[in-house]
């Protein structure tokens, strides 16, 4: 078992390791032991669907269990809900499924959580021990299948091992680099008689995540920061997972260096802060992308230099020295060689950096970034984010999302699907605090938004949760609205409905000579590109009403605010708003896949002019 991650998570309450305890011993079934163990580790919500092999675990839930079970409509919904719950609350999310197809339906959300370092525990039933390996009914080697996409997984072979396994699973998921852990339990193990006592003894030889950074590396990083002329703080999702956002603000204001926050780090640093340049990457702001390209020092905190940020790797930030701090040593040097590698928890790293930079200042060594900020401000002012209103009077998708953000109650959580609407939600909603932006970053999983919003709302009942979804994403997992309606989970869903797979269509517009092969969603191949409402299939308002939700539609800009305010006013049921938007809107800026970040387009055929010199 290896540590595979970036950013440390504040751990879930977990048992102490050590010798035997004096807790009373109870005689129970393996299934009862499982539910008791979940209660003891602090799991208050489980998303799942019963089936043959996991069925024994469902019976004890009826016996006044502290665990709330949310019966989803598809196991993928259970997995994404567990992820949304974890991202919104900072606790470990839990999902449960039966063997075979139940378990394999969890593979996508497990892979999604793995890519984004989200702490979830997936519990699956397995065929009886003697049947394993015989191709029994609904048998699948889920441990083997998920080995590459879990932080660790367990096949429990003895009922007495259940408490220890659950305790270890939660500990592994929530410490070091967070991530998904799978626990597979054969049916006969759940049915067996055993004893239960708590806390168990945790025994994880070799699993010792390094959290405290090396002092020499910290001092060297501080020295480089004060010597640099063009530094950038490149902030990733690990800063949020480490609960290090307060420390980040102190460091940024102490140094005066510009801050960029990745798609997974939105909210780690206030969007409104004068030091914030926005999001870097393929659809990042011109100022953020260019700052990284022109920097002479990049301080990467809980970020992994992924391809969506770097563009063509060998042309990324050619003048920059690299300070790379990460909880996962495997990330450091993986894509870009680090001049100063720092292994440690982001919160401890940043706190130590603050002290070291202050010591540099006290010794009279401070950075002079005056010329740098002149360039940054010029780029920021010349190439701000923006959009054009459609000339035909239809709704602008950017305006819809921007107004949802502006009219939403304070502390609203936004969960986005994947595609154009995801990028617009990243750009046109302001994120001032962490854990208010949930999305599928690394895996790019369409269908994430509705179940993730459901999980977030289940974990943060007092807060408003909006899912910003596309009509393509929505049709993958919208059945979980039934779950929301029946379980008093009143999320709000904005369908940004352009009648197409929008991001794919954008690529077809730009790179395939406007040959729109199989991207129209609301009508058949022989229908006109813009079918009227009477031929839209499905009718999202009727579909939402059939699932127990309030269904609304908006297609006139004059009605936009009133419809959003009506959605905000309904809090006893889920609300779905079908926003009919212009189909030709595109996401800008853009760096085409496989090209250098120097090739960024501020809009179609519009390349920013940064002057001739590398320092411009």
Shape summary: globular
**How many separate domains make up the residues?**
3
For the record, what is the CATH homologous superfamily label of the largest domain? Thiamin diphosphate (ThDP)-binding fold, Pyr/PP domains
CATH topology of the largest domain: Rossmann fold
Domain Thiamine pyrophosphate enzyme central: 218-353
Pathway: Amino-acid biosynthesis; L-valine biosynthesis; L-valine from pyruvate: step 1/4; Amino-acid biosynthesis; L-isoleucine biosynthesis; L-isoleucine from 2-oxobutanoate: step 1/4
Family: Belongs to the TPP enzyme family.
Protein name: Acetolactate synthase
3D structure, described in words:
Pfam families: TPP_enzyme_C (PF02775), TPP_enzyme_M (PF00205), TPP_enzyme_N (PF02776). Belongs to the TPP enzyme family. Its EC number is 2.2.1.6. InterPro entries: Acetolactate_synth_lsu, AHAS_TPP, DHS-like_NAD/FAD-binding_dom, THDP-binding, Thiamin_PyroP_enz_cen_dom, Thiamin_PyroP_enz_TPP-bd_dom, TPP_enz, TPP_enzyme_TPP-bd. There is one protein chain. The chain is of the alpha/beta class and 616 residues long. It folds into 3 domains: 26-196, Rossmann fold (3-Layer(aba) Sandwich); 215-382, Rossmann fold (3-Layer(aba) Sandwich); 397-580, 3-Layer(aba) Sandwich (Rossmann fold), CATH 3.40.50. The chain has 23 helices and 20 strands. The strands form 4 sheets. The protein has a 6-stranded parallel β-sheet with strand order 3-2-4-5-7-6, sandwiched between helices. Strands 11-10-9-12-13-14 form a 6-stranded parallel β-sheet, sandwiched between helices. Helix 2 (55-58) links the parallel strand 2 (45-48) and strand 3 (68-71). The longest helix is centred in the middle third of the chain and has 17 residues, at 346-362. It is globular and about 70 Å long. 55% of the residues are buried.
């Amino acid at each position: 078992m290896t540590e595979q991650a970036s950013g440390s998570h504040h751990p879930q309450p977990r048992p102490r390791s050590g010798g035997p305890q004096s807790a009373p011993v109870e005689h129970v079934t393996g299934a009862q032991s499982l539910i008791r163990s979940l209660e003891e580790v602090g799991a208050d919500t489980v998303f799942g669907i019963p089936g043959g092999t996991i069925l024994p675990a469902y019976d004890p839930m009826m016996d006044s269990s502290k665990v709330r079970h949310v019966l989803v409509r598809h196991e993928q919904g259970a997995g994404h809900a567990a992820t949304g719950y974890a991202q919104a609350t900072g606790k470990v999310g839990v999902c449960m499924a039966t063997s075979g197809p139940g378990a394999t339906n969890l593979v996508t959300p497990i892979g999604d959580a793995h890519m984004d370092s989200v702490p979830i525990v997936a519990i699956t039933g397995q065929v009886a021990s003697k049947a394993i390996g015989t191709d029994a009914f609904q048998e699948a080697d889920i441990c083997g299948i998920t080995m590459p996409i879990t932080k660790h997984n367990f096949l429990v072979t003895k009922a007495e091992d259940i408490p220890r396994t659950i305790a270890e699973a939660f500990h592994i998921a929530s410490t070091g680099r967070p991530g998904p852990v799978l626990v597979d339990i054969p049916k006969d193990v759940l049915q067996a008689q055993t004893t239960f006592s708590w806390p168990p003894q945790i025994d994880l030889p070799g699993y010792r995540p390094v959290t405290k950074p090396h002092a020499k590396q910290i001092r060297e990083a501080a020295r480089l920061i004060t010597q640099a002329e063009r530094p950038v703080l490149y902030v990733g999702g690990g800063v949020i997972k480490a609960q290090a956002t307060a420390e980040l603000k102190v460091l940024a204001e102490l140094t005066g260096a510009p801050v960029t926050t990745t798609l997974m780090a939105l909210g780690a640093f206030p969007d409104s802060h004068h030091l914030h340049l926005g999001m870097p990457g393929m659809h990042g702001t011109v100022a953020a992308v260019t700052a990284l390209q022109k920097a002479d020092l990049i301080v990467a905190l809980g970020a992994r230099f992924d391809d969506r940020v770097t563009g063509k790797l060998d042309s990324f930030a050619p003048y920059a020295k690299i300070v790379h701090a990460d909880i996962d040593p495997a990330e450091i040097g993986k894509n870009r060689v680090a001049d100063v590698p720092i292994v440690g928890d982001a919160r401890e790293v940043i706190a130590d950096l603050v002290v070291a930079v202050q010591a540099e200042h006290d010794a009279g060594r401070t950075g002079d970034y005056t010329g740098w900020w002149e360039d940054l401000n010029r780029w920021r002012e010349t190439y701000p984010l923006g959009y054009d209103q459609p000339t035909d009077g239809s709704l602008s998708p950017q305006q819809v999302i921007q107004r949802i953000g502006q009219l939403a109650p304070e502390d609203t959580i936004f969960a986005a699907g994947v595609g154009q609407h995801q990028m617009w939600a990243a750009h046109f909603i302001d994120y001032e605090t962490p854990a208010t932006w949930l999305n599928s970053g690394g895996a790019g999983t369409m269908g994430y938004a509705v179940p993730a919003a459901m999980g977030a709302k289940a974990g943060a009942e007092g807060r408003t949760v909006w899912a910003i979804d596309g009509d393509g994403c929505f049709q993958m997992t919208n059945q979980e609205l039934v779950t929301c309606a029946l379980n008093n989970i009143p999320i709000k869903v904005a369908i940004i409905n352009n009648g197409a797979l929008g991001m794919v269509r954008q690529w077809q517009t730009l790179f395939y000579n406007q040959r729109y092969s199989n991207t129209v969603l609301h009508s058949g191949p022989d229908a006109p590109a813009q079918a009227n409402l009477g031929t839209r299939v499905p009718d999202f308002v009727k579909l939402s009403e059939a699932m127990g939700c309030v269904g609304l539609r908006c297609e006139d800009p004059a009605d936009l605010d009133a419809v959003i305010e009506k959605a905000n006013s309904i809090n006893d049921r889920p609300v779905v708003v079908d926003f009919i938007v212009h189909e030709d809107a595109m996401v800008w800026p853009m760096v085409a896949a496989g090209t250098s970040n120097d090739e960024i387009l501020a809009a179609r055929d519009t390349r920013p002019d940064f002057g001739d010199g590398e320092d411009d």
